[in-house]
TrEMBL record, chain A:
Keywords: ATP-binding, Nucleotide-binding, Transport. The keyword Membrane does not apply. InterPro entries: AAA+_ATPase, ABC_transporter-like_ATP-bd, ABC_transporter-like_CS, ABC_transpr_MalK-like, ABC_transpr_MalK/UgpC-like, Mo/tungstate-bd_C_term_dom, NA-bd_OB-fold, P-loop_NTPase. CDD domains: ABC_MalK_N. Belongs to the ABC transporter superfamily. This is ABC transporter ATP-binding protein.
UniProtKB/TrEMBL annotation, chain B:
It comes from the Bacteria. This is Carbohydrate ABC transporter permease. Coiled coil: none annotated. One of its GO terms (biological process) is transmembrane transport.
Length: 333, 276
């Protein structure tokens, strides 16, 4: 079981309120991603759940039990840190065994679990090495191994992939998703990378300045962002946000249109501009269109084979049914 | 170091390094050489280098005139005792400053360091009078305490620097893994801090061993360590360089041997955590 409920949970550091009171429910077996810009409080929220920080108010329930005052050790959660936080003086085997040793588990059971974890994570050949002799990806796998052997009621991941290079990150992302599919244990995953959020999550929690801006499945957030912040944060490349007369035309303070929802033509369209930068990726082409008179630059996603380059004149037409309208307060109309 | 060096440059650097090394160690080498000369050869001009009559007579004389072992034992007690006592005080202090810093932690550290900026002679009279009225002059316990207090700022600073290198996330990981505070200290913190504690210990033993100001001023016979042993051979009746050198060699030999075998730890201590 791994049902986690936050009731009115708040955190203050001295005078500074990092997290105003918030409520959140995480169902058993869910993969929940906390996402937001640096300093939005997502890591603090995770540390509150872990018990590494004390709450300034509210309650944390784990499987219906009040765990607000419980020590991290008593909460039955396992955490994977950004820096891996392996014990440098212990071998991989001892690192993985450490939580079981602390729990006083019998040696043969420890050995069975270590072998199973090592096999699942491709670490069998490295069990007698020290963390210092491993690559970044292997270290991260050891950290995950140390977390799974405890069979925790939930896993907490604090930006676990941000120290890895891009290629490895994609690989580890898949491994963590597969792990979740196999174990079906609750996972709470903190990241500032919205691609990780979109690809891995069952449920995304978008945070800004300690407030929950929106909770929903990746596609809900993509299709129906509740406000300008979520609209700008979810999606890659970012949604184009237009203000002024362009937005007024649609009866809104701000309108948003995703790069993939704008049609491109060399002859006619709604907005005329000139291509500033063109990025040809093969599968797609991204244009950063300038001189439109409605915004500094409009990002457009076009067909990969399109034959237009820097300096070319271009016509853009937004798909009206994919347009997002936001009012004065930034909320969706 | 991706810079290219030619063979000529490397030779030049090697020669220069040896030159500087010899210059630094010259007084010690000269002292050791002199300790094997006769008194006449010790003050010969021009000086004799190696072609003298090697003799152990100075060592025999020094040992008959004074009890080397007693001085040696006093040095051991004072150096090791003050360092261990210092560690006992400094480990918890550095621990809390490194892992539970408050807004005044920096000020406390600066204040402790500032006590080292005062010349020791400035407090000699009050310390002397204080010890005299307590009847502690020329006792080992006074020397251990004074030496501990003298080196405490350095010990705390060194340990603080080491402890701060231990990433807090590793301690948090131990807490998440179910370790109690006691297990966290035994299985995670201490093993990671051992190299730092060891080099702090070594460096402070050496500092306390070589300290002469307080030991000379606060002891006469009973608690006198090897520094006093050396000083007793530079008497007003005239200097006996060969015997003085023999005494000095005997005084520095133990610490030199200790230093030789713990070079690696010492270098780490001296670079103060600057290089990981």
């Amino acid at each position: 079981m791994g049902n986690i409920t936050l009731e009115n949970v708040a955190k203050r550091f001295g005078e500074v309120e990092v997290i105003p009171p918030l409520d959140l429910n995480i169902e058993d077996g869910e993969f929940v991603v906390f996402v937001g810009p640096s300093g939005c409080g997502k890591s603090t929220l995770l540390r509150l759940i872990a018990g590494l920080e004390d709450v300034s108010g509210g309650r944390i329930l784990i499987d219906g039990q009040d765990a607000t005052e419980a020590s991290p050790a008593k909460r039955g959660l396992a955490m994977v840190f950004q820096s891996y936080a392996l014990y440098p003086h212990m071998s991989v085997r001892k690192n993985i065994a450490f939580p079981m040793k602390m729990a006083g588990m019998p040696e043969d059971e420890q050995k069975r679990r270590i072998d199973a974890a090592a096999k699942a994570l491709n670490l069998t050949d490295y069990l007698d090495r020290r963390p210092g002799q491993l690559s970044g990806g292997q270290r991260q796998r050891v950290a995950i191994g140390r977390a799974i052997v405890r069979e925790p009621s939930a896993f907490l991941f604090d930006e676990p992939l941000s120290n890895l290079d891009a290629a490895l990150r994609v690989g580890m992302r898949l491994e963590i998703s597969e792990l979740h599919n196999r174990l079906k244990t609750t996972m709470i995953y903190v990241t500032h990378d919205q691609v990780e959020a979109m690809t891995m999550a069952d449920k995304i929690v978008v945070l800004q300045a300690g407030r929950i801006e929106q909770v929903g499945s990746p596609m809900e957030l993509y299709r129906n962002p509740r406000n300008v912040f979520v609209a700008g944060f979810i999606g890659s490349p970012k949604m184009n946000l237009l203000t002024g007369p362009t937005a007024a035309e649609y009866g809104a303070e701000t309108i948003g249109i995703r790069p993939e929802h704008i049609g491109v033509s060399t002859e006619s369209g709604k907005w005329k501009g000139r291509i500033g930068v063109s990025e040809h990726l093969g599968s797609d082409t991204f244009f950063y269109v300038e001189e439109t008179g409605i915004a500094d630059a409009i990002t457009v996603r076009a067909d990969g084979e399109i034959d237009l380059y820097h300096g070319d004149e271009i016509w853009l037409t937004p798909q009206e049914d994919k347009l997002h309208r936001f009012g004065k307060d930034g909320n969706r109309i | 170091m991706a810079r290219k060096t030619t063979t000529g440059q490397r030779a030049l650097i090697t020669v220069a390094a040896w030159g500087i090394g010899l210059l630094i160690s010259f007084p010690i080498i000269w002292t050791i050489l002199t300790s094997f000369k006769t008194e006449a050869q010790a003050i010969a001009s021009p000086p004799v280098w190696f072609n003298f009559d090697w003799t152990l007579q100075n060592y025999i004389d020094v040992n008959t005139r004074s009890d080397y072992l007693r001085y040696f034992w006093n040095s051991v007690v004072i150096a090791v005792g003050s360092t261990l006592l210092g560690l006992a005080v400094a480990i918890p202090a550095a621990w809390s400053m490194a892992f539970q810093p408050t807004k005044n932690t920096k000020n406390v550290l600066m204040w402790m360091l500032s006590t080292k900026m005062m010349p020791a002679v400035g407090v000699l009279v009050p310390v002397y009078l204080g010890l005299r009225s307590m009847g502690l002059l020329d006792t080992r316990i006074a020397l251990v305490t004074i030496m501990m207090l003298m080196n405490l700022p350095i010990i705390v600073w060194m340990l603080f620097t080491y402890f701060r290198e231990i990433p807090g996330e590793i301690l948090e990981a131990a807490r998440m893994d179910g370790a109690s505070l006691r297990n966290e200290i035994i299985y995670v913190l201490t093993p990671m801090a051992v190299p730092g504690i060891a080099s702090t210990l070594l460096l402070n033993v050496i500092l306390a061993w070589n300290e002469a100001f307080w030991t000379l001023n606060l002891t006469t016979t009973n608690a006198a360590p090897l520094t006093a042993f050396i000083a007793s051979f530079s008497s007003p009746q005239g200097l006996f360089y060969a015997k003085l050198s023999a005494a000095s060699t005997m005084a520095i030999a133990p610490i030199l041997i200790l230093g030789w075998f713990s070079q690696k730890q010492l270098v780490r201590g001296l670079t103060f955590g600057a290089v990981k």
